Predict the structure.
Amino acid sequence: MKITIIGGGPAGMYFGILMKAADAGHQITIYERNGPDDTFGWGVVFSGRTLNNLRAADPASHAEITGDFAAWENVDVAHRDENISIHGNSFSGIARLRLLKILQRRCDELGIEIKFHTEITDLKSFVSECDLFVGADGVNSTVRQKFADQFKPDLSTRPNKYVWYGTHQLFHGLTLTFRETREGVFAAHSYKFDTTTSTFIIECDPHTWTNAGFDEMSDAETRAHLENVFARDLAGHQLLSNNSKWINFLLVRNANWYFDNVVLLGDALHTAHFSIGSGTKLALEDAITLAQCFRHNAEVSKALRQFETERKPVIETYQAAAEESMLWFENAKDFMQLTPIELAYVLMTRSGRIDHETLRRRDPNFIALYENQSKAKS
Ligand SMILES: Cc1cc2nc3c(=O)[nH]c(=O)nc-3n(C[C@H](O)[C@H](O)[C@H](O)COP(=O)(O)OP(=O)(O)OC[C@H]3O[C@@H](n4cnc5c(N)ncnc54)[C@H](O)[C@@H]3O)c2cc1C
């Protein structure tokens, strides 16, 4: 089969790898507008279960990816200078660039051609010249835009602003830090992803953003301001920029996932708020499901139909949980009167995926603390 993939991110490369590993006869080309060493952002996180899926799908890349992982089992909530750790939550982190390099090397090993520095805008000729055309071109997908009549996307730009920094302050565990200032509430989502660096994403509502005057600040002024807000948490470390800019989260859904021989994958197809840390996981798992559909169906239209039928309900469940989490962060200021333990409890249960009893199983000490405090208050 001749397969053309637009986008050399996790979704596009991993799908190429799985298809080529299953059948070396496939002729696969990936078009990527950036160079092999360019990337945005810092590290990404995976939940424990993702790893088993990767092991089963492609043991070679799984071994390399997990060899580089920073792993932890705690979520920390920092509020009013108190740090609450909740244990029993398995996560791992890896630098995005490191993940991309591993996947690029695996593509190379299998004989998949990646054409870097090649931005594809005229899609029609590409679509007609291949058997399968994959739009894995990320959240602002050109493929989705050009074929909007077929995919019928539903896009929602969310009100909160966020910016993705790095720092050499090491956060051992997924750490959610809240700082109340005169301007409003800032939340930071941080985690260590290698031995020297953590991701540090800062989020605030639009009023806080306007009050702080970020619209008139340079990048350096913005960083200085935020280093001051999180001074105690960063313990003297700087915020590191990688062309980091304030953005609004774009929630993406599509009514149709494919038409003819064209399909969307990863962020081009759906997004889930970064607070549940599953964008890369979902992109890789999309690739696994789509590749499996081709094992069961040689015919492209049947494989694509099966992909949509199987995968859509899974994604809808994730998006529902991620939406609850996103709304929580959009309204974070309403929870700041809670004690640190109460805030930690509300945060852990915010998306509806973890309930009281699950939390008790994962961390009985935390639940005992929470229950004692609730009793003392009532
Ligand atoms: C602030 C923030 C924090 C995040 N944190 C996490 C996290 O902790 N854990 C996690 O799992 N995920 C996280 N994510 C999400 C994660 O980055 C994405 O979900 C993931 O990268 C999706 O993979 P993808 O392959 O679908 O898209 P992308 O990684 O976006 O890849 C798409 C590729 O297509 C290329 N491209 C686009 N258009 C064209 C074109 N016309 N021609 C050629 N090439 C093109 C782009 O250059 C890009 O390389 C975060 C995202 C953000 C914004």
Remarks:
- DSSP finds 15 helices and 15 strands in the chain.
- Residues 74 and 87 are 4 Å apart (CA to CA).
- Residues 6-12, 31-34, 44-45, 119-120, 136-138, 142, 162, 164, 201, 266-268, 274, 277-281, 283 surround flavin-adenine dinucleotide (CB under 6 Å).
- The longest strand covers residues 153-167.
